[in-house]
Amino acid sequence: MGIKHGTPDEWSRLWKHYEATDLASERSAVLNALGCSQDKDTLYNYLAKILDPHSNVRSQDHYIVIRAVLGEKAGLAAGFQFLNKHIDSLLDEAKKDETSPAEDNLKSIVNLVGSGISTDDEMQIFSKILTPYNAHPLLSGTINKTMTVANDRMKFRNEHQVALQAWFNLNTPSTTPSPATTPRPTEVTSPDVPTPPPGPGQSTTPGPKPSGAASTVLTSGLLVATVLICVRNKLAAL
C-alpha cells in the first residue's frame, strides 16, 4: 500500500529506517517519501520535526522535509496548522540566533503554503494567519510577495475558470472505451472429403499421377465405362 495510503505504523517503520541508515542518498529519498502520507496529523508531526533538535533531521535537510510535506495538496492543512502554532516561536528563534535556520524555514513554509492555495476559503485562512505579521521586519517582504502571487493566481482562476474548464473538457482524452471492433467473418471452407479405405489387395500408397497420352487414355476409358453402365441400367429397367 505504501506511505501514501498506509497507516501511521507503516510511516513509523519508514522513519525508523531513516534513523538507522547512514547513506546520505537513501536518507534524502526516505525524507521525501515520508511526505507522501495523506494523513493531516502525520504530516503535521513530520513537519514539526524541524523544530526538534533531537529528531535526527539535519538543519541542511529541513527544506527537504518542508517541501515533502507542502509539495502536495494533502499537506496544506498541516502547513496552516504549523504556521498557526509555531510562527511566533520561529520568529523569536530567528531573532535570537542569526545562525538558526528558523528564518529560512519559516519563509519557505510561507511560500509553499501560499503556492498550494486554490480556493477562496484557503485564501481566507492564509490571510488570517499572516495579517498580524504584515509589518514584521523579518517576514513582511515574504508575506507581501506570497500574498500578491496567490491573489493574482486566484483572480486569474476566477476570471477564466469557465473557459479553462471548457478547454480541459475539449482537450482531455476520453476515458470511454471505444466500441469493440466487429471481427471479420471467418471464411467457411468445405470439409475435406475423406478418402475411402483401400479394398483388399490395394496399396495404401498413392501411385504416380498419369500424365500425357496415358492420362488421355485413362480418361476416355472412364467415360466409355460410365456410358456402358448407364445403357445397362436402362435395359434392365425395360
TrEMBL record:
GO terms for molecular function: metalloaminopeptidase activity; peptide binding; zinc ion binding. The keyword Cell membrane does not apply. Pfam families: ERAP1_C. One of its GO terms (cellular component) is membrane. Transmembrane segments: none annotated. GO terms for biological process: peptide catabolic process; proteolysis. Residues 172-192, 201-212 have a biased composition (Low complexity). Keywords: Aminopeptidase, Hydrolase, Protease. InterPro entries: ERAP1-like_C_dom (IPR024571), Peptidase_M1_aminopeptidases (IPR050344). Residues 169-214 are annotated as: Disordered. Residues 2-133 form the ERAP1-like C-terminal domain. Belongs to the peptidase M1 family. This is Membrane alanyl aminopeptidase.
